């Protein structure tokens, strides 16, 4: 399908009253831990939510360990210039949740497509995550594809209480390379801020700001013409000893075997960060899925169960 046809299809799914005006979709989600009726020692997580178009939460699923899997659907078929998405998640004490997306997200080109905005308009997403003590949240959306001339920026703010765990992974494709498309004047921006409340006050765990554009994509000191970028971050519930961190990093590097692309990982003061640059979204997803399993294993949690919405690839791959 051509870019023009896809863009028209996305616009046609808007409510008639909105026309071509930007859309602001919102999703507010609360995760609540409860004991089961059969076993007061067992816990499961339920949710309460409120969404506005074009965001919609589909039916939740419970993992074997009581974790709540929640697939978030963007019904418009893609983002056009000026669209905004807002996602807020509040995870109460002892809750466990996994929030994913139903399909890959598309960001259509806006540069040079409007006389009113010849330089294009940014599509944006704001995410705010608030995790109480012992809460465990995994944010694992599927791939984001920035079309030629697409402009997309995202800001994620994470507030953690003691012993809370937050894990996120993102895979971004710059241009539709299968169609011979480049990023051109498009760009992708990301800001991730993770802060934790400690006995001595509020402490920053990670501030990560990135921008990828055509210049970075082509630069030998940037992407080196490789169109796929991936980022994986885990803020652990407790500090990791030097021995545990050394073993974790060794295993994560071993997990790169038989995957194409450049992959690197390193330790945070209390967690892990990993990057992928290469030609393959699948390779990035496979490596990050293996790292995801490592973090679960380290906490003696169940093996990750891939959501039903994810493509059928390597076991546990998103």
Give a written overview of the molecule.
By secondary structure, the chain is mostly beta strands. The chain has one domain. Helices cover about 15% and strands about 45% of the residues. The chain has 4 helices and 18 strands. The chain has helices at about 5-10, 215-220, 240-255, 280-300, and strands at about 25-35, 45-50, 55, 60, 70-75, 85-90, 95-100, 105, 125-130, 135-140, 145, 150-160, 165-175, 185-200, 200-215, 230-235, 260-270, 270-280. The strands form 2 sheets. Strands 3, 4, 5, 7, 8, 10, 11, 13, 16, 17 and 18 form an 11-stranded mixed β-sheet that branches. Strand 17 (about 260-270) and strand 18 (about 270-280) form a beta hairpin. The longest helix has 18 residues, at about 280-300. It is globular. The relative contact order is 0.11.
Q: Please state the CA-atom Rg, rounded to the nearest Å.
A: 20 Å
Tally of separate helices: 4
What oligomeric state best describes the polypeptide chains here? single chain
The overall pLDDT average reads 90
Number of strands: 18
In the predicted model, the low-confidence regions spanning at least 5 consecutive residues are 11-19
Strand content: 35-45%
Q: Quickly give the structural class.
A: mainly beta
Helix content estimate: 10-25%
List the helices and strands in order: HEEEEEEEEEEEEEEEHEHEEH
What is the terminal-to-terminal distance?
A: 24 Å
Number of domains: 1
Overall 3D form: globular
Q: Sketch the major β-sheet.
A: 11 strands, mixed
